[in-house]
Amino acid sequence: MSAETRGTARDRPVPKFFPRSLFFPLFCLSLFFSSGTLSFAQRQETLPWWYILEQGKFYFRGGEYGHALLSFEDARRQRRAMYEQMERDFIDFLSLPEVRRLGDSLDRIETYAAERSYDNVSALLAELYYRIPRESFSDSASAALGVLGGLKDYPEAEYWIGETYRTEGELGLALSQFRKAYELRGLFENPGSDLDILYKIADICKIRQEYNEMERTLLLILGQDTLWSEESGSFAKNAMIRTLENEGINRFLSLYRYNNTAVEEAHRLLGFYYYASGRHSRAEEHLMFSFLIQNTVILEELIRREYDYEFTGLRALSDEINRNSLLSDYASKTEYYRTIYYLGTSLFGTGKAGPARDFWNFLAACGEAGEWQNRARAQLSGPRVDRAVEMP
């Protein structure tokens, strides 16, 4: 196109529907927003990755999921870039002839870097020791290099990307992210994050009706329940089951306490699932653990408030729950009465009609049990293994 034909922006005709008087103000406005976007991106580049992650959480809690997702992805990218640069710097340093003569001793290499003012190497080693205990390297530079390369991944960012997708209803993408975060669980800075991820995975599998995967995930959580999972705990577990089946609810709660709250929900969901799929013996076992943990938490709170409190029976305990809003909220959150109903009905399904009736009698007299009171009364009129119309 020639200069004569091309002309200038000033010479070209402006469309009739676009008043010439608005052209310059809108042009300036577009420049303002463009420069603002660029300056925001530049500011993001200068911020540390952990700070950008916190910014993303702020956006997420404010419902700005688009900005949150961009921040989490930026945090992941910047952490990777930082550790990749550290890895390259360390490899270059270890490749120097004078450093190679020092052997694999991390102490000697660190001393040499400090004496010869290789500040970038000293800084990267300090960062490495902050993340990983120094003694775990056994004075091996090659071991330190290997670990440094592994720090490029950022499980917290993967988790929050997944949480953003989950909130927006993109369950397939969220599931992929949570699984990626779980694979990187060894890098999490906060203990217990792996259980949170597994619960999120199980919840998505439940929503997607992928029950076999949900079961597998919940059993992974219960791998951390030593009383339930270890062979050494089988004697105690069998003794608890015998007590419940042969001596009833009140004797059971008088003898046993177990406050592993991290696994209560996993036991409860598996109990509901096994009951719905007709595996009553397994349902009984898991619901028994859930019931025991729930009541242990309730009793510990009552003892905390009244140091000489003594358990006298489930009915009296229920009255205490109703008088205390904190305990009432906890009972609602943990599906206390639903747990009791299906525990009793699972016992009936395994041929233990006596303790099953004890649970039903309790619920039948318990107005706060809602629909589970009505179901229990129906069971007392005509005991049966009723079909569970709801999954976990």
Distance between the termini: 69 Å
The number of distinct structural domains comes to 3
Shape: elongated
Low-confidence stretches: 1-43
Q: Main beta sheet, described?
A: none
What structural class do you assign from the helix and strand content? Answer: mainly alpha
Query: Which CATH class of the largest domain?
Result: Mainly Alpha
Describe the structure.
By secondary structure, the chain is mainly alpha-helical. It has 3 domains: 61-150, no CATH class; 155-208, no CATH class; 226-381, Serine Threonine Protein Phosphatase 5, Tetratricopeptide repeat. It has helices spanning 3-6, 20-46, 49-61, 65-94, 97-100, 106-115, 119-131, 141-150, 155-167, 171-183, 193-207, 211-222, 226-229, 234-247, 249-255, 264-276, 280-305, 314-323, 325-333, 336-349, 353-364, 371-381. Helix 3 runs parallel beside helix 9 and helix 12 (211-222) runs antiparallel to helix 16 (264-276). The protein is elongated, with a radius of gyration of 31 Å. The chain starts with a helix and ends in an 11-residue tail after the last helix.
Topology (elements, then pairings):
Layout: H1 3-6, H2 20-46, H3 49-61, H4 65-94, H5 97-100, H6 106-115, H7 119-131, H8 141-150, H9 155-167, H10 171-183, H11 193-207, H12 211-222, H13 226-229, H14 234-247, H15 249-255, H16 264-276, H17 280-305, H18 314-323, H19 325-333, H20 336-349, H21 353-364, H22 371-381
Helix pairs in contact: 3-4, 3-9, 4-9, 9-10, 10-11, 11-12, 12-16, 14-15, 16-17, 16-20, 17-20, 18-19, 20-21, 21-22
